[in-house]
Amino acid sequence: MDSRNINRYLLNELIVFLMIILTIIFSFSQLKAVQTSIELLLFSFFIFVSIQYRFKKQEFLLVLVFWFVTAASFFLNSFSVFLTNAKALGLAIYTMLYFTRVHHRSKLIDVTAICSICLMVINFINPSILSPIVELSKFSDFNKSRFGGIFFNAHLNGYFIAVWLIFILYQNRQYFPASLVVLMTGSKFVFVSYFFQGVPKRIYKKYLPMIIFMTIISFLFLSRWLVQLFNTAKLVSLSVILYQLFDIRYYYYVLSIFPNDYVETIASAPLSEDFFNLAGAMIANEIGYFQLFYQAGNILAVLYLMRYFKLANVYTIFIIISMLHYGFILSPIVVYMMVVFSYIINKQNQLSANNQYQVLQGL
After folding, report:
1. I need a surface site. Which of 109, 168, 188, 333 has the fewest CB within 10 A?
2. Is 25's pLDDT higher than 70?
3. Cα(336)–Cα(339) distance, integer angstroms
4. Within 10 Å of residue 69's Cβ, how many Cβ atoms?
């Protein structure tokens, strides 16, 4: 490896390292200034290198719409809301653009995943060892019941480990033996998404009409019964998800083409008093699709999802299901993993198909 390739390798390792650090310190309010500095550094770098890109039509449209709605957001929202939305969407989009071209497979992902699993084991054996750090995190109470691994966030930790395991186990499809590790993270919805990712795609193709039919029937006739069924202390999140999916008023907030104040929008979200009382004391948005549309506006959200599904096609089922809860498809480290891992798997599948074709030609 010559010096130029070494420098490129070290640069990409540094980028991945910064994205991992960014994801970790997100759980610590005390490090907000560091978080913002890393975000701006990465964003500036990605924009700078994108100057030399030859954009595909879909990429060009995505970038064009992003800057248009971001400029509009500057005039329509407060500065903090404008900055938050621009930063989240901009980092995700430009991370995607960069790693569509740079297919760097970093071993730092493996190290982070293994460290996170080890921390979960340590916390299970003796929680007091990590309790001083847990107390400093944003989600200290949540971490005491469901420890969030190296990210101190159970949902994000579960998402990260699931994405990693799907890549590691893709070729031999041994998803289910490793499902215990995902279950250990305490994120039930990530576990469900991981489980259905392991179901062969031919089954989805066979039963897709039935799935669509049952979804429509549930929406029209079974919504009240389903929400009540899961309205328990342990399953209240699922109850809230179903409540929000089945209440047509929530879809009003995805009609805007411009980014909105996500926090204010959620605070003003409707609650039907005559529907029924849910087991949770507080109700906030639980659906990843809604969050994406609130923060991006509907045109940018649709363009982003179209490009994302194309580049991260290996994770299609996982993304579709997980976005019904806390989907993390705007997290730079998740964008990196899904895009690069999907590229590597697709390349391996293509090489395998070519080899099989050559063998058949030689017979």
Report:
1. 168
2. yes
3. 5
4. 24
Helix axes of 188-197 and 236-246: crossing angle, nearest 10 degrees: 70
- What is the identity of the amino acid at 196? F
Query: Would you state the torsion angle of the CA atoms of residues 44, 47, 50, 55, taken in this order, to the nearest 10 degrees?
Result: 160
pLDDT in tens, 297-344: 999 999 999 999 999 999 999 999 999 887 899 999 999 999 999 999
Are the CB atoms for 337 and 109 separated by under 8 Å?
yes
User: What is the sign, positive or negative, of the torsion defined by CA atoms of 116, 120, 122, 126?
Assistant: positive
Q: How far apart are CA 357 and CA 363, in angstroms?
A: 10
Question: Shortest CA distance to 309 belongs to which of 285, 327, 284?
Answer: 327
Query: How far apart are the C-alpha atoms of 120 and 83, rounded to whole Å?
Result: 34
Contact 69, 297 (CB under 8 A): yes
Tally of CA atoms within 13 A in the half-sphere of 178 that contains its CB: 19
Q: Give the CA distances from residue 363 to residues 349, 353, 354, 355, 360, in Å, rounded to whole numbers and listed in that order.
A: 21, 16, 15, 13, 5
Q: Judge contact between 258 and 71, C-beta under 8 A.
A: no
From residue 20, give the alpha-carbon distance in Å to each of 135, 155, 235, 315, 331: 21, 16, 31, 20, 10
Q: Please give the DSSP secondary-structure letter assigned to residue 218.
A: I
Size of the chain in residues: 363
> CA 172 to CA 31: how far, in whole Å?
41
Compute CA distances 336 → 46, 96, 272, 317, whole Å: 13, 7, 40, 18
* 155-210 confidence digits (pLDDT tens): 999 999 999 999 998 866 666 677 888 888 888 889 888 888 888 778 877 877 88
- Do residues 243 and 278 lie in contact, with contact meaning Cβ atoms separated by under 8 Å? yes
Q: E-strand spans in the chain?
A: none
Q: In Å, what is the CA distance from 288 to each residue of 175, 222, 255, 305, 331? A: 24, 23, 16, 12, 12
| pTM of the entire predicted model | 0.89
